[in-house]
Each structure stands twice: as structure tokens, then as C-alpha cells.
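User: My advisor, Dr. K., asked me to get a structural model of this assembly before our group meeting. I'm new to this, so sorry if the format is off. These are the inputs:
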Amino acid sequence: MDRRKFLKSSLSVGAVAASGGLAAPALSQGAAAKTLKFVPQANLANFDPVWGTQYVVRNASQLVWDTLYGLNSKLEPKRQMVASEEVSADGLTWTFKLRDGLKFHDGEKVLAKDVVASITRWTSRDAMGQMLKAINKELTAVDDTTIKWVLAKPYPKMLYALGKVGTPCCFIMPERIAKTDPFKQIEEYIGSGPMKFVRADWKPGAIAAFEKFGDYAPRNEPSDWWAGGKVMSFDRVEWIIMPDPATASAALQSGEIDWWETPLTDLVPVLKRNRNIKVDIADPLGNIGSFRLNHLHPPFNDVKVRRAVQMALSQEDYMRAMSGSDTALWSKLGSVFTPGTATFSDAGGEVLTGPRNIDGAKKLLAEAGYSGQPVTCLVAQDQPPLKAMGEVTADLLKKIGMTVDFVATDWGTVGQRRASKNPPGQGGWGMFHTWHAGADAANPAGHIACRAGGEKGPAWFGWPDDPKVEEGVAQWFDAKSPEEEKAAMAVANKASMESVTWIPTGFYKSFQAWRSNLEGVSDGPLPWFWGVKKS
Amino acid sequence: MLTYIVRRLLSTVMVMAIVALFVFSLLYIAPGDPAAVIAGEQASPEDVEKIRTALGLDRPFVVRFTEWAWQIVRYQNLGTSMFTGLPVTELIVQRIEPTLSLAVLTLIVAIVIAVPMGIVAAWQAGGWIDRFVMAFAVAGFSVPVFVVGYLLSYFFALYLEWLPTQGYTPISRGLWPWLENLILPTIALGFVYIALIARITRATMLEVLSQDYVRTAKAKGVGQGSILFLHALKNAAVPIVTVIGIGVALLIGGAVVTESVFAIPGLGRLTIDAIVRRDYPVIQGIVLMFSFVYVIVNLCVDLAYTALDPRIRY
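Assistant: The format is fine. Below is the predicted structure of the whole assembly, which you can bring to the meeting.
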């Protein structure tokens, strides 16, 4: 018994006497072992994984809603709710059969019509879903367990689309909920996943709780990321929101919480010294730091100016500013895609990873006729990685002789202003900083940032326009083998580097930390709760 | 007196109407877009625009303000959070207990400690107790709440393991579990108020203790305790009560920091979360509620004057 427990038990006696028996019901050790206290990366401010596409919403949703397919650690889509699938020889008709024993938390069976409604809602919001919607001819429930999807054009990435982890994911909801306008929030949180959402305990900004769904029938296979059997050993999972990293660190050290998703790098040495805590890389797919350039207005509408910045910037400077000197956490990256995956390509990426050339950058700027017009650089001060990147960028631009209009603001304002196509002096912008989750950027599937379709799209903020990039992306979607996918990504990456659609500032990972009495914590793009046990 | 109270309560309505208009206008012109935050990092500009339309953010200022104000006046409905989809009233009710607990406990602790400290310091003016109290007051003003919070958390929670580092337990689950979570936050937040109230008490008492009637009381042989607490303190009470009233207002700001440091799910954190996300209905609802609290606290302070000083009449 530690001092606190001793003190607590001693004082409780007095408190019971003083308060007329108003003491709290104590949790038994068994009950405590059945409850997981988890500190997520952010506040669960809404709970509709299609309407709100923040990662924290997806991470919570995986407990409540199931998916037809799930990606494993090799990024291969595997069956989850589906028992079998069949595709016609021409690749136009897909037939999916649901597996037995699927039930929603309200006791109703999961039916094909629920799947049809859920897919329909998802296709309105997701990038891959929108591609499918564009070639959709007929999506119907043939019977209670069979779904038929007829397309106008083959779509080889169908299973990947239905099982991908990039937001929004294709979660399956009851038909009545899935019929909600995709741009409006759902009001019922009924899924068929391994945990039920406890609406009464949800205090946004404070706590979200999930209780085990007794009727959940996991697949009879070992779990591997989002694939396989989702066997929960906890009766209750509590998400406790802690905005202050120092508080979360103290709570983990004192055993008040079990698992902290995103410890601040500065606090990791303290946690590593504690023998009751384990610390490891959270997500092998990491993140890609980036800054977006506005291709619509000077100076970045000139490829020479973009190339000048590209040849001068040092990714090492960015990574050290963001992640510190632990080189296990970061690396240089000559690609717009996530390194370490089977189809990764950094073709043409030496312009970022090779020697830096400040003089060459100055020369290019002179050739472009750059005459000192200010670059409106949006920097969100409330996001530490973005703030660090912004400061490095400002220094870089000054070094090569550019004038910087450093707009220190918050992420909410960046989110609004980056959508403006006005010139920088009229409420627009020249560049802003952001990052992309490695799982999203592993290929062009959900990686809208890699697109270069110009103002008419598809393209993300900055609106780069490069048909060669789009050609590579189109080849990827049509690819039928990993080799073809890799070749397509090489085309897209090389073109992206040449026309400098946007600039990756490096690849970085982060840690997760948990109490050593927790077993089965694995890495991945999101925290997997199945297979985790508390002793 | 009754007329005065009714008049003040009526003026509250006017104050809140002005606050409502001011806050709504401020949020309207402030940069930031909740639709962009909701849509997420990977969202396309088209999706952001559709969400903005669905939230009604594309409508003119007058339409939005009138609709919001009408909902409050007609249905006492503060609206719905744009992010959580929950009624603002429900969000506020969820968070009131922790903040109220922290605020009340802090005020009690601050008054119980600070007033005697100030009295003793004034009584022993120039002595070592007085110097200690003044040094404490300087420290209380100088050290930020979060620094005190972290130090307390490190020493009492991590090092001694006596108290939890964070969290809040409702009082319905027991007196000790409730108190256990509030001890450190109360000390952290109370530090500055103890300093403030102690200083004011000392200064006011010093002035009162130099009055002729106190000298007369001493000459008559009245005991020291009676002089300090019955004669002097009662006459020094008006400025002290005023400062305590101002302290309630300041407490809200302090609670924001304290609630973050100790992960207490109170109104302070709700406010910050709402501001960061641009959750306009929540921000408006909280500001209205706080302005109401301020007005009522000021009214209570004004009424307390009449009880403390019979010369004051409304």
C-alpha cells in the first residue's frame, strides 16, 4: 500500500464519520483492472466520424462503429464485417456478404440496408468515396445480408477504400442514423463495434466513456491493427481529456491514468526514467511536416520562386525544431508520401535531401524577378509543431532575401484564411504550415494534399496545378499490383518535386506512454484497444 | 430597500442585453472559422463551405443575432454547441459543480486565512509577523497560479503521494473524494487571494486602529480581542467585502488556469475550449452567464454594506 492509499483509507474513516456515511463506493482491484483510463491526443468534441473528420473522432469511433474491412499492419484491407466478396470479371459489379452475428448496440441486427445507407453517407464526404460516387450506377441491398454495388468503371481500390484508416472512414451505422445529412451531425451513437458509447457520461472536454458490448462477435482471428478479432478485455474504457501535458505526465507517473497517447517530447525523458512506465514509438507511419505554397498569386505562382525555397530549406532544421535532437524520431524525406511502406517512392526527392544551396536560391529568385514583395506566412501559434516550423521558415526566407509578413495567429484562423483565394494583401495568404498523418499519406488514396488539379480540383489549399502529378495519381488508382502502384507513385512524386506543388519539411514520429501493468499495447496510426490487458 | 433591489435586478436585464450584443458582434468580426475546424485537416474547401451553410454561418449578422436573442428571450434557450451538438445549457450545467466547488472553497479558505492574517499583521505592525505577512503577500502576487500548481502537484502528489495530481470527483460520491481532488487546486488558486485580502485587511485595519475611538476603547481597558474583532474589524469590513467581491470576478480568470493545471472539468476549461474552436453559441452562453453572476455578486456586495455599516442606506 502506498502512502496515498494509506492516507486515503485513514482519512476515509474520518470522512465517513464526518459526512454521515457519504463516502464513495470503492472500486475493487478487479473492477479497476477492467477499466482503462486513456488520455487521448485531443478533446472528443463531437462524435460523428463522417461529419467531423478529426483523428480523435475516428479513434473513438473505432470502438463504437465497425467497418466492412480493416487495414492490417501491412496496409492490406482485410475482411471485418464482411464474410465474403465477389467482383465480376469486368470489375464493375461488387457483391458483399455480411458475416453472421452482427448486431447493433440497440439489439437490432446489422442488415444490408444499414450498410447501403452508411456507404451512401460516407461517399458524400470522403475523397475515395466521392470517386466511387462519381462512377456509381447502383448500390442496393439484395437481401438482409447481401449488398450489390454496380459501377460505371472498374475501381480496383474498392476494398482499400472501405477499410482505410484515413478520415472519414466507412463506419457502418443503423440506416435511420446513416440517413442524416452528411453535413449535419448525427444525434444517436449506435454502432455495432466492440464498445458502446455511454452518452450520459460524455462531458465534451472532460470525459468520454465506453462500455463493453456483450453481443459483439469478434472475428476468430488474431488482431492486426484494424483487421482480425477485436477482443476487448475491458468492461469500460474512459477517455480523460487533459489539455496540459505536464498534468498528464504527472497523472501517468502517479498511476491515475493507464495510457497517454501523445506525450510531449520534452517530457519523455522523465517518463522513461520511471520504471512503472513504458514509452515507445506510437505510430511507425509517423507524420509528414509540410508547408503549402499559394500557387494562385505572386511570388509562389512562379515555379522558380518555389524551387528557390525548396533548394534552400534544410529539413534537419525543421525536424530539430519540432522533434528535438533524438534522430530516432525523425528523418529527411524527399517525398510527398510516407516512407517505410511497400509502395513508397522518393523519385526526384534529392532536391530536398541533397546538399542545400542558399546562393543558388538567391540566383533563382533574381532570375524570377522577385523584388521583395512580402510573403504572407500564416503560423498557428497554438500548435507547437506548426509554430516551430513557422519560425524556421521565416528564418529561411530571410536568408535567401525574401521579405516575410509573419502572421502569428491560431489554428482556427489559419483554417479559415487558407481557404481564401484572394491575393495575400486582401485577406489571402502566401504560405501556411501543416502536417499530414503518415497513414493518410501512405498513398494517394486519402491524401488530398498530394493532388494537383488546380483551382478546379482535385487539389488541396494552395491549388497546385500539375497534370503530371494527376497522371501519376490516376495510374495509382488504376494499378492492379503493388509494383504498378509504386511506379505510379514515383511518377506523381517526381512531378511534385519538379513543380514544387508543396514542400515536405521532413518525416517525424512521436511517442506513446503507458503504465507497465498494461500488456498488449501496440503501435499503429491510431490506438488499438483490442488485445490490451491490465494486470 | 426593496425598490432598490428591484431596480438593480431590472438593470441586470439591460446589462445582459448589452453584453449579448457586444459579445455577438465581437465574435462576428473575430477571425476564425468553426466550419474549417469541424471539417478537419483533410477537408476540401467545398466541404468547409457546405458545413458553414449547414451551420447557418453564411447568414447575415442581423438574422443570426435576432434568432439567437429570440431563442433566449422566448424559450430561455442558449442554443446548441456547433461542435458537440449538445445544448449549451447542458454543457454549462455539466461544468458548474467543479467550478463552483473550486470557487467557493477557495473563497472560504482565502477569507478564513487572509482576514486573521491581515488583522494580526496590522496589530503587530512593523514586527516580524507583519513582515512575514507582507512577504507572503508579495509572493502571492508575484508567483503565477500555474507555477504554484505545478509545485504543489509535484510535492504533494508525485513526491509525497498524498493527494491526486488531477481530476474532479462530484460531491455526491463522498465528501473526502470530493475534497481530495480540490485541496491542491484550492491552495494554488487561493494563494493570490489570500495575499490580496490579507494586504487590504492589514491596510484598512491599520487605518482603523489609529482612530480615536480605538484609543478610547484601549483607555477604557477593553480587551485586545474585543478591540480588534468587535470594534476595529467591523469598521474595516466595507473595503474588505468590496475586495472579496472583486475577487469573485478575478476568480473566474484564475479558475481557467487552475482547471487546466489540475484537469478539472469546469467552466474555465469549457470557455477556453469553446474559444479555441470558435464554438460561438457556447462562448455567448458562458459570457452571458458570467455577466449575470458578476451583476448578482455586485448586488450582494452592495447589500452587505448596509448590514456592515448602518450609515449606508439605499
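One thing worth pointing out at the meeting: Chain A is about 30% helix and 20% strand.

User: Perfect, thanks a lot.
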